[in-house]
Specification:
By secondary structure, this protein is an alpha/beta fold. It is about 30% helix and about 25% strand. The protein contains 15 helices and 19 strands. A hairpin with a 2-residue loop joins strand 1 and strand 2. The chain starts with a strand and ends in a 7-residue tail after the last helix.
């Protein structure tokens, strides 16, 4: 099977490569990869090359395929896997392999990665349960299950305690006060969506940001009325307009403070504000990943001692978190597509990966079997003034307030004659 991939050849060296895959073994799967969403960790791998802990030393001779937030169709099943998998089944990849080497899809393998038209899923990944069934025809939501599962993992990792009872009650506090700080960006939209529609319902959700446009977009997609219908008070706040943000935010809780605080920006002031907002037994989850290995922020240890405040940090999510994300999106309970701001084809991957920190917006969604420059959804209407291709996409997305959709995906794949059937 011939495949076309984006691969890391060295530091800041990502190229498109076309070659013949070897025959699969009896314990492997050959799959057609329809979609992959680009992760910032891929940029870090491309930036460092073999100096990255997950990237092998021999990538000049065996380039590593990029991408790990992927979904597609099983094409061929090794004979030892018959009965477990069938050709034609849709799948989504859980990329967290947790191997001692640190190796995983999208960083370490010549034939296994999400930015490929076809790839081989090796025995290790199959045995670790990384190939999950997908029961929907909308591949974007499957690719977005990985970032969504990171969000779900953060909610599950928060915890609460009772004095002198030495066990943790995992998860955000039911009927508690939840603060989502710097949370009106694309990943923040997923966090708000899950807070409203997840199993554990807070009594109050306060979402802060300093960008009024982002807050208005969040309010449009996830209005206060949606939360109210679930018995939750939802409040959006632009803290840049407040003289005393902590006092104002605490005022929404009648001075009680917040049982759970999730921080979505690695910014000193945001973390320090989260610390000040914690109620007794309050849990602060530092969700944002800093790039500075020496990043430090003051934390009130008086409150740690006397008020049992505490902090956790999460990166990634478990297979269970991903299954929850898939189940909820398949049922329409959450909308991971809120996170997508750009769409492109496989040809756009090298430039997208290498320039990712400098491209504004949220998730960049790649369809591996099409040719299309990475394009902001917000530019479709303007481009459509002279290009009927973008005009049709803009028309479709006008139905969903410019949120990427199954209808748009289906039209795009049909336009490029990409089959999603075996």
């Amino acid at each position: 099977m011939k495949t076309k991939v984006a691969a890391i050849y060295g530091k800041k060296d990502v190229r498109i490569r076309e070659f013949e895959l070897p025959p699969i073994t009896d314990d492997e799967l050959l799959v057609k990869v329809i979609s992959d969403s680009v992760c910032l960790s891929t940029y870090k791998a491309a930036l460092l090359g073999s100096e990255h802990k997950r990237v092998p030393d021999d990538i000049a001779e065996h380039p590593a395929i990029t991408g790990h937030e992927c979904a597609g169709i099983i094409i061929e099943v090794g004979k030892n896997l018959h009965g477990r998998f069938s050709a034609g089944e849709k799948f989504v990849l859980q990329p967290a392999m947790n191997l001692p080497t640190g190796y995983s899809a999208g960083y370490s393998y010549e034939f296994f990665g999400g930015n490929a038209t076809y790839m081989i899923i090796p025995k290790q990944a199959v045995d670790l349960g990384c190939v999950l069934p997908y029961n929907s025809n909308y591949f974007a939501n499957a690719s977005l299950a990985e970032p969504m599962c990171c969000i779900i993992g953060a909610y599950h990792a928060s915890y609460h305690t009772t004095a002198y009872v030495y066990e943790h009650r995992m998860g955000i506090k039911p009927a508690g006060n939840l603060a989502l700080l710097a949370c009106a960006g694309p990943m923040g939209l997923g966090a708000i969506d899950y807070a409203i529609n997840g199993d554990i319902k807070p009594a109050r959700i306060v979402v802060t940001d300093i960008d009024e446009d982002r807050l208005n977009r969040a309010r449009q997609l996830l209005p206060e009325s949606m939360a109210k219908a679930k018995g939750i008070e939802l409040i959006y706040v632009n803290v840049s307009q407040l003289s005393d943000p902590v006092a104002t935010l605490k005022g929404y809780t009648n001075g009680h403070g917040y049982d759970d605080v999730l921080v979505f920006a690695a910014v000193d002031q945001v973390i320090e504000m989260g610390d000040e907002l914690l109620a007794e037994d309050g849990c602060l989850n530092f969700f944002a990943g800093p790039t500075d290995k020496k990043f430090k922020v003051p934390f009130n240890f008086y409150h740690v001692h006397y008020s049992a405040t505490h902090i956790v940090g999460t990166s990634g999510g478990s297979t269970g978190d991903m299954i929850e994300a898939l189940n909820m999106s398949e049922k329409g309970l959450i909308q991971p597509s809120f996170m997508v701001t750009h769409v492109g084809g496989l040809d756009a991957v090298p430039d997208t990966v290498l320039n990712l920190p400098h491209i504004p917006g949220g998730k960049k969604l790649i369809y591996n079997h099409i040719t299309m420059p990475l394009t902001a959804i917000s530019d479709f209407a303007r481009l459509g003034e002279t290009d009927p291709f973008y005009a049709e996409l803009a028309k479709i997305l006008a139905e969903t307030h410019d949120v990427w959709s199954e209808k748009a995906e289906r039209w795009l794949l049909n336009y490029f004659n990409v089959s999603t059937e075996y």
